[in-house]
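Subject: for your reference before the review

Hello V.,

The reviewers asked for a structural picture of the protein, and I figured it would be easier to keep everything in one thread rather than splitting it across files. Below is the amino acid sequence we used in the manuscript, unchanged from the supplementary table.
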Amino acid sequence: MNATASIEHALALHRGGDLAGAEEVYGHILRDDPDDVSALQLMGVICTQRGSWRDGEQYLRRCLAIAPGYAAAHGNLGLVLARTGRVDEALVSLRRSVVLDPAQPGVWSNLGMVLTRAGRYADFRMYPISSAYARSRPCSSRRPRKSRDFTVPSGTPSTRAISA
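And here is what came back from the structure prediction:
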């Protein structure tokens, strides 16, 4: 099986919830080609899904050392950094991700989640969202309410996100 077919197979396992099977295939790919950025990025995602934040960060940073323009890896690294309490670093990584690929709605959501969790509501104006979206969703000055696992402004649904 070639590398592309192996990645597709691993992604099918990953999306189907078979993390062990996907991890095994990603591991085989990385043994054959330790610099395969797709496998590095996706192995980082699996680590974070298992709660192995340090391992996930290492895979994602290795991926970005090889491919610094990989938007999804920047987005996933931003989540790892946020989950480990490094909000400023997380925001740099998430912002880099949206600059590289502004069409990623999940990363915009994650950027908003990190800003909200940090209580940095004024920072929303710093990010280049489309003017149409900004006009349709004005910032609320209402006090935040507590959600299940993080603080969100009143009337805003709680979301949990990790990109695969």
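For the response letter, the relevant points are probably these. The beta strands are 144-146, 151-153. DSSP finds eight helices and two strands in the chain.

Happy to draft the paragraph if you're swamped.

O.
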